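Z., the sequence and structure:
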Amino acid sequence: MIRINEHFLKLQASYLFSDIAKRVAAFQQAHPERSIIKLGIGDVTHALPPACVAAFHRAIDEMADDATFRGYGPEQGYPFLREKIAETDFQSRGADIAADEIFVSDGSKCDTGNIQEIFSTGARIAIPDPVYPVYLDTNVMAGRTEKNRNGRYDGIVYMEGTAENGFVPELPREPVDLIYLCYPNNPTGATIDKAGLARWVDWARDHRALILFDAAYEAFVRDDGLPKSIFEIEGAREVAIEFRSFSKTAGFTGTRCAFTVVPKSLMAWDADGKAHSVHALWQRRQSTKFNGVSYPVQQAAAAVYTAEGRTQTTALINAYLENAALIRMKMQELGYACVGGENSPYIWINGKKNSWAFFDELLEKAGVVCTPGAGFGTCGENYIRISAFNSRENVQEALARIASALAG
C-alpha cells in the first residue's frame, strides 16, 4: 500500500492566493457586469523592457541555427549572466561575491522553498510573522513542525513583526538554526537599515545559525542608507544565503529567471560536528534536480545589466513606486495607518477589522482585490496588503472606488 507524506496533511486546505482566486472567481460569476481591479497578488502588469525583448529575440534566432544552437546549459547558469550579476549587484556595492557563488534559477519562490532540503529535518526554524507563506509551508511539508494550533505550528519559532517594532522582529530568545528574513519585506513593505541587519548577522555568527535572506524586492530601494544585499554587512558570507529575482526587477514573472547566492565560505555541520560546504551541497542538489534556465531567458536577463536595460528597468520600477506612493497617500487620507510603499511595492494597511472581512468589503463594494493579512500569519490579522503592480489608470480608478466604498 502506497503511503503519502502525512506532513502535507498539516497544511491549511489551500494556498493563500488560491483562496483569493476562488473568491474573486465566485464574485465575477455572480456579478459578470462588474469590472475587477486586481491589486492583490504581486504580479507585474507592464511589458518586458525592450532591451530584454531584443536580447530574447537574438537568442531565439541563435537557437534556430545549428551553428549557434545550445542544448543543456550549465546548471549553475551561463557565465555571461553570473559575471554581470556578481559585478553589478554585489561587487559594485562592496559585497565580496564571486560569479561562481551565484546559481541562476527559474524563480526565487522555488529556491526559497527548495533550499531547506539540504538541511537537517531536525533543524530549528525561526520564521517572521507575518510571512511569505512559502517559507513556512515548505518546512511543514518537510516535517519540521507539529500540528497547527490556533493558526501556528508547534515546533516553529515565530518572530513577531508588529507596528510597535516597525515590522522588524526582535532577535530570537532561544536557539534556532535557520532564520528566514525578507527585506524589503513581503508582505509588509517594511525595510531594515544596515545597523539593524548587522545585528542579525552578528547573532547568527554567535549562535552558528544560518540566515536565509530574501531580497527579491531590493530593486525598489531608493534610500541610499538601506542595504540591498545582506552581503553588504561584514561577516555575512559566513552565515547567509541570499535570494534574488528578475520577476519584479524586470517583469520576468512569466519569463522566469532568478538567482541564489551561496558563498563558498558558508559552512554547516553534520551530527558528528564535521563542517561541510553549503555551496557544495546546493550545487549537488541543483545538478541532480534542476536542468537550468533556458539560454534565451538568460540572455534576456543579462540585458538588464546593459545601459539601456538599466534605464528601462529603473523606469518600470519608478512607475510602480509612484503607484505605491499614491496608494499610501490615499489610504492615509482615509484614516488608515500604513507601512511600506516607499522602498517597496507593497502597502500594509491596518484595516481596523478582520482582514478577510475587509477583503470582502473591498471586493463587493469597490470591485478591488487586495490580500488579507491573516493569510500571512497571526500578526497579519486586521491588516490588508495592497500591491502597486498595475497601470497608473487602474490604480487611480481603484483608489476612487475604495474611497467611495469606505465613505458609504
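The chain has two domains: 6-47+314-407, 53-307. The mean pLDDT is 96.

Let me know what you think.
H.
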